[in-house]
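Quick note —
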Amino acid sequence: MRHGKKFNHLSRKTAHRKAMLSNMACSLIEHKRINTTIAKAKALRVYVEPILTRSKEDTTHSRRLVFRYLQNKDMVTELFREVAPKIADRPGGYTRIIRTGYRLGDNAEMCMIELVDFNDVYTNEKAKKTTRRSRRGGSGGGASTEATTETVETATDETENTEMAAESPVVEEAEVIEETVAEEAPAKADNLTKIEGIGPKIAETLAAAGVATYADLAGTDVEKIADIIKDVRGKHVPDTWPKQAQMAADGKWDELKAWQDELDGGKPAEG
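Predicted structure written out below.
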């Protein structure tokens, strides 16, 4: 009898179990969904969700703690750069388990475990349901219907006349309004979390201060950036952010990624 069994050992020794869950967590982060057995999926959910919560705070300390469990630098980068911004507003419950039947052979119950925010089918908002109501009259329904029809026709004629009289001014006003909106449209904000060392909270703080694009960040002094993010929790070193932003603004993504692999949470790696 196995007393004190607090969790599913999955018929593996401790080292084997940890290595398996680490590999499964990396696969889930990379592919956003994987197929496995129900038992392994439930164990993986307990293993990976604290890691996802940790990724919301993009600091060197958080990255090192996550690397301790994943042991894969590429997956750590993928987690903080792609997954973390998507789950930033979700207070837990990042994964979903969908049962898919039984495996042929050993009849093990299978499932698909996925990241909730990366399922485009379930996350789309459902169209609002509209209900059409009709009023049914009693014995005097025929007379009331005729009177209603005449009233509707009269109102329609008056509306058409009014629209014809005011058609030209409305068109001119619409053109003026469209031109004004086009002139006042602000520049589209960039995803600043692609800069090594910038997490969702820092990106939000910079956007609130008017630094919302790569070009804005590239033209901002390091001292000013440090002053903007001084109230954000954690230790941040923005020395390389303007240069990274300039490379992103110029579209040099391959060079930027190669340089980011050498950085340590946004600051130059210590030799």
